[in-house]
């Protein structure tokens, strides 16, 4: 499982980097730079993509990388940028009270909160508010997928995929496409200064590997719902795979930056 996750994270990283909203990324860096030798805690760090993206903008920053997968933590530490200060923590993200957040100035996460429940998001917002820790959360899927070449089954496939995204992924009934908006709402209610910005993937013919895995993942999720016939799913998937080398798609995401007032 860990090897598969690492391969998927590697495949999507270039699209993630290109999609991140530059304004919020730079604002997060500026907030960290305002306090010398600050600590950032990356929740669900995977192989360390946030560290590799935000870290170089903040020299002298110390990172605490948190994940529940020891193989991914080891890979994140191995790939850390030269000169970066990193510690790794193996932890269950669902146990919010046990998470080692202090004395962080900023918590970060990428493509995490669409896998989490509203209770998890509300609990984290309370914890961050109590300890006056900011949050930079990038790349929460927003439920929108637009293919350059349309197919009659697109609407049904996307709707069922979005329904599947709301299933329990280990942190309670997942928010799925509602994650970014709910995250912003919960943090604003706790008094944070909240900014949001769209961060869509723009996949094109130069990314056939990522497009292939993406549409295969949609098809697999829709199969699990049992709401569409196998013939319909297979026909849609065959059509999609047939154009990955000549077309693309746009996949909506939302970035959120919440800073204590």
Automatic annotation (TrEMBL):
Residues 41-117 form the Methyltransferase domain. InterPro entries: Methyltransf_25 (IPR041698), SAM-dependent_MTases_sf (IPR029063). This is Methyltransferase domain-containing protein. It comes from Aurantimonas endophytica.
């Amino acid at each position: 499982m860990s090897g598969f996750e690492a391969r998927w994270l590697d495949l999507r990283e270039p699209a993630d980097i290109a999609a991140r909203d530059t304004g919020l990324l730079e604002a997060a860096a500026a907030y960290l730079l305002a306090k010398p030798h600050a600590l950032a805690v990356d929740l669900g760090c995977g192989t360390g993509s946030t560290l590799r993206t935000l870290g170089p903008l903040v020299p002298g920053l110390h990172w605490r990388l948190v994940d529940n997968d020891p193989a991914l933590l080891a890979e994140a530490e191995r790939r850390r940028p030269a000169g970066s200060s990193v510690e790794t923590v193996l932890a269950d993200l669902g146990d919010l009270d046990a998470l080692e957040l202090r004395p962080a100035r900023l918590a970060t996460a990428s493509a995490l909160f669409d896998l989490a429940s509203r209770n998890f998001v509300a609990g984290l917002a309370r914890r961050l508010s109590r300890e006056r820790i900011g949050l930079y959360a990038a790349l929460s899927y927003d439920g929108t997928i637009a293919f350059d070449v349309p197919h009659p089954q697109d609407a049904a496939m996307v709707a069922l995929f979005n329904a599947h995204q709301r299933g329990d992924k280990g942190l309670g009934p997942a928010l799925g496409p509602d994650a970014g908006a709910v995250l912003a709402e919960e943090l604003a209610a706790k008094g944070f200064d909240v900014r949001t910005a769209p961060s869509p993937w723009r996949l094109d013919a130069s990314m056939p590997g990522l497009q292939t895995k993406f549409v295969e993942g949609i098809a697999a999720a829709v199969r699990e719902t049992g709401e569409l016939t196998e013939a319909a799913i297979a026909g849609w998937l065959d059509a999609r795979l047939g154009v990955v080398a000549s077309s693309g798609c746009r996949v909506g995401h939302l970035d959120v930056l919440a800073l204590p007032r």
